[in-house]
Each structure stands twice: as structure tokens, then as C-alpha cells.
Amino acid sequence: MTSWPLDKPSQLWMALSRERFEAPALQSEIEADVVVVGGGISGLATALELARRGRKVVLLEAAKIGYGASGRANGQVISALTRHGPAAIRALEPGEKGDRLIALVRDAADMLFALVDKYAIDCDACRNGWLQPAHSEGRARRTTDLAEQWAAVGAPAAALSSHAMQARLGAGGYHGGWEHRGGGHINPYAFTLGLARAAAQEGAFIFESSPAWRIGRVRNGWLVETPEGRVSAPKIALATAAHTGNLWPALRRSIVPVTSYQAATEPLGELATRILPDNEAVSDTRIDLRYFRKDRDGRLVSGGALALQIGASRRLPALVAKRLHNMFPALRKKRMEFFWGGRIAMTIDRLPHLHRRADGLCAWVGCNGRGLALACAMAPVLADAIDGVPDDELALQPSKPRAVPLHAITSRIARFILPWYRFKDSCEI
Ligand SMILES: Cc1cc2nc3c(=O)[nH]c(=O)nc-3n(C[C@H](O)[C@H](O)[C@H](O)COP(=O)(O)OP(=O)(O)OC[C@H]3O[C@@H](n4cnc5c(N)ncnc54)[C@H](O)[C@@H]3O)c2cc1C
């Protein structure tokens, strides 16, 4: 198995990517309309949107494009939040505001695949749907309800019986579930590089190896300093997700970064025709969820989390292999070929949050593990926030960052809740 240091994007996705992108480090002083900090999907899609609106945009990436979660994700394109369906969103945000957020989530996968099409992004995009199998009878009732709620607001969603789910997965053991036919999967690293190419094509100025070290207010806006350059602009957007540092301490304290690991089998050969024969992406209903999809060579790419990080490069692939073997006994002879990890920005309420300050600083955080499509849908919203669209016309209501209680301790011990999650999952009937 190829082990890959956790400080680099996925070696699998890099090896499979035909997209290439390189940018210089910032070594001068530039004036712009907007500075975007962070070269993941959020920052790039926002820079692309702003450039299309005619803004002069400078994007600063601390490392290389795709260094963050965007280059390490499982690649599932999901048009649904982790916890809140339409009814729960409406309970939180009644009326038009709730409807706008529901539409944003519903259309998120459309937005991602539209970018793939418009800019011919070569990322092995496969739009054959997303499945959520239910691991208990209770969850099957909830997923049926969820499918009905999403279908009622116009999403291509439907409940699946346990028999239908078994046929779709190529494995039994689930109590039905639901499908969202608008979902699918991509090579997330290739998609991120393709977005960078598209943003540059639309006129955004992108710099790699250019960490925003310091941001400060100047007369007409913001001054952003990097090791070798400076950018001044009236507006600044932070798209730093789980890598958020101290540029805006309140933003960092509003999220808990959680490490998630990925592992991929060697190519499955003929077996690939029997596992996920229709090539969907899958994430089940467990809190410590099981998820997988195939890559273009027929590897099964899956992942999980660990409470203790020691020996992760050995323990995580073994855990994933055991879970996959339980589902697909024929996989027993296949070895795990790739391993990597990344960090996810979790919010306490599991919702995305948009923040806008009167001094021109904007951000959104809270992908909660489902950020690929959401980041594409949030880009025009962040661009609207930057452009001064009034609060009650934005698709997501801006709020003040709310600190996670006891943040310093919570972010260190969050992963130790995992055994409790596994216990809860196993108790569900
Ligand atoms: C292992 C894993 C699996 C996942 N699987 C899925 C999935 O299957 N489906 C799904 O929808 N979502 C998934 N996610 C979540 C998804 O990857 C993220 O929601 C999404 O990529 C977030 O994109 P982003 O641009 O907001 O953040 P990132 O991609 O993390 O980008 C943030 C960037 O900001 C840069 N940065 C930070 N500070 C500075 C600074 N001061 N100056 C300049 N640059 C800075 C970082 O270097 C980084 O590149 C997964 C995440 C992980 C980690």
C-alpha cells in the first residue's frame, strides 16, 4: 500500500488527474477589488464567480491549489445536508428564507456539474446518482420521509426498498434507503485544478505558496500581507474552511476541524461490474458513516475516522478493509493500495454559516463533510455578500460567528466521541 503523508493531497486523485494547474507566488504589491484567501473549491468558485461579474480578484493559496480538503475528499457530489432535510430547514428558517436555503441545497449538485460542463473540467465526472442506504428500520422510515420531502421540493429523490438497494449496491444488509439521482462523483483534486484553470481564464489572479500572514484595515479597505507581497482591496473573502487560522479568530472558534481518512483498494477488475453496477456514490445513515464509490479504474474508495490517530496509516486501511469485506466478501483478496487524510470543518449545528462584516470581510464555513457541491452553490452567495446584496435577499442569512463552547478543548477531544457514535449506531433498530 502506498502511504502518503497527511500534509499532501491524495496521491490517488493526483495520479488520476489529467487537469494541471500551476501559479506563481505573489512577489509584488497589487490592488484588487476583492482578495480571496484559500485555494480550495470554495475560494476558487467564488473567485471565478466574482471574475465573471467583472471584479478584479486576487486569490491567495498558502500551499498548492487543492492542498486542503478539496484535493483529499472522497469525491461524492451530494445535494443534501448531513442532518437537515427541507422540513428541518423550514423549522429553523420559516418562509422565503427557508425556501431559498432549501433551493440552494437542492440545486448544489446542478451547480457543480454545470461548472464541469461549462469549463470542460476533466475530472471523471459521473452523474449516476447518490445513494443513502439505511442501517436500521428506524433509519429506513426516516430516509423514506426525507426522500418524500426532497421530492416535494422538486429534487430527483426517491425512497428505495431493501431489495432495490441490494441490487444497486451489489450487497445486502441494509433496510432500504433513498436515492438522489442528481448526485454522483468526481475526482475532487482534478475538479479543483480545473476550477483554478477556469477562474484564471475568467481573469482571476491566482497565487500559490502565498499564505495570507496578516490582514489589516487600511484607509480604503484591507491590506493582506504574504511573505513576499501585499494585496490591497476594499473587500476580502476567507475561504479557508478547516484550515482557518487566526486571520479572523472568531471564525476559527466557530468550527471544529475533524480529521477524516481515506483508503482505496487496488482495481477490482471483473468484480467492479458486481459492486455498484450502476456506479453511484454511497454514504449510509450511520453517524460514523460508511461510504464508498468507484474511481475510473474500478478501485473502491472509502474512508472513516479514528479516535486515536497513532498508527493511522496501518489501522485505518485495516478498518476500511474489514468493513468493505463484511459487505462484499469477494473483496477479501483485494489489497488496499492508497491511504490519505484531510480535515473537515464541522459546525455544532451541522449547518453552513455565512458571515459578513460591515468592514468588507466575508466568509462561509461549515461543510460538515458534504462540501463539494455546497461550495459551488455557496460561491454566488458569497459573491452576493461581497457585492452588498441586502441580508434578506441572500440565499443564506448572514450571522455572527458563534464560538464552539470550550473551543480549545472541544477541537482537541472531538474525535474521542467516535466510540459513542459507534455504540449509538449499533443500538439503533
Ligand atoms: C477526507 C475527506 C473526505 C471528504 N469527502 C467528501 C465527499 O465525498 N463529498 C463532499 O461533498 N465533501 C467531502 N469532504 C468535504 C469537502 O472536501 C470540503 O467541504 C470542501 O473541499 C471544502 O472546500 P474549501 O475550499 O472550503 O476548503 P479547502 O479545500 O480545505 O481549502 C481551504 C484552503 O485554504 C488554504 N488556506 C488556509 N489558510 C490560508 C491562508 N492564511 N492563506 C492562504 N491560504 C490559506 C488552505 O491551504 C486550503 O487549500 C471531504 C473532506 C475530507 C477531508
UniProtKB/TrEMBL annotation:
Q: What is this protein called?
A: Glycine/D-amino acid oxidase-like deaminating enzyme
Q: Which residues form the FAD dependent oxidoreductase domain?
A: 33-384
List keywords of the entry alphabetically. Answer: Oxidoreductase
Q: Which InterPro entries match?
A: FAD-dep_OxRdtase, FAD/NAD-bd_sf
* Coiled coil spans: none
Q: Does the keyword Cytoplasm apply?
A: no
Does the keyword section mention ATP-binding? no
| Taxonomic superkingdom | Bacteria
Entry-linked Pfam families: DAO
